[in-house]
Write a structure and sequence with these properties.
- By secondary structure, the protein is of the alpha/beta class.
- About 35% of the residues lie in helices and about 20% in strands.
- Helix 6 packs parallel to helix 8.
- The chain is globular and about 45 Å long.
Length: about 230
């Protein structure tokens, strides 16, 4: 969003405050379609308040772990997770490593750009079980024509989605916006893709609307067949 004039950026921020919705949660249904209907142990890195963890728990037979570096957001995740949901939350800085696997599923939404890219992808690879699936919804710096085109298209669509998701809702029942302030990404999509292809042979990546990209990779070995990607 680097090319957006400051006045327009302030107007968008004001609109989103009045019509909140989460760009990250928007991709949760897509993310779930990349996974088997049932799997064992799962890890969500940068879990925030745990929305995705709770969705994963509905499919997991081995439990889901959510980690985030923010103690307050982890406390909130524990508070809003109903009893009986097979999920645990821990304060952890993924820059120093992630909990030991193996995991059948690892997810990471809007957090990879906060972490050292190569080291983190390597850790994900090492902790993924044979046949396991890694799904990332990431943020990248706008650097070329395609990036700027998708960013420009996202502006009116962002307004439309805000109106649609808040239509007829009272203030207390409106969807939650971003759970935490995120740092602007420094790495461009082409750079992320170059490194991902090197570390994760066969990885599938795609630029998306709302200033996001997606990454899907399956560890070699036995396990359920990876579904085809879709919108």
């Amino acid at each position: 969003m680097a090319l957006i004039p400051p006045r327009l950026l302030r107007a968008l921020e004001s609109f989103n405050s009045a019509h909140p919705w989460s760009h990250n949660a928007h991709y949760h249904p897509w993310l779930l379609r990349q996974l088997p209907r049932g799997f064992g142990r799962a890890l969500d890195v940068g879990c925030g308040s745990g929305d995705l963890v709770r969705l994963l728990a509905a499919r997991s037979a081995g439990g889901v772990e959510g980690v985030d570096s923010d103690p307050e957001i982890i406390a909130r995740a524990r508070e809003v997770t109903p009893p009986g949901v097979t999920a645990t939350f821990a304060v952890a800085d993924a820059r120093a490593g992630i909990p030991a696997g193996p995991y059948d599923v690892i997810t990471c939404v809007a957090a990879l750009h906060h972490l050292p890219l190569t080291e983190t992808l390597t850790r994900f690879c090492a902790q993924l079980a044979p046949g396991g699936t890694l799904v990332v919804v990431g943020c990248a710096r706008e650097a070329d024509f395609v990036d700027h085109l998708l960013g420009a298209l996202s502006i009116p669509l962002n307004l439309a989605m805000g109106l649609l998701k808040n239509r007829g809702r009272r203030a207390e029942s409106r969807p939650v916006s971003m759970t935490a302030v995120t740092r602007a990404p420094e790495t461009a999509f082409v750079e992320v893709r170059r490194e991902a292809v090197r570390v994760l042979p066969g990885v599938r990546m795609r630029r998306r609307l709302f200033w996001r990209y997606t990454l899907v990779w399956r560890q070699a070995g036995s396990g359920s067949r990876l579904p085809g990607t879709g919108l």
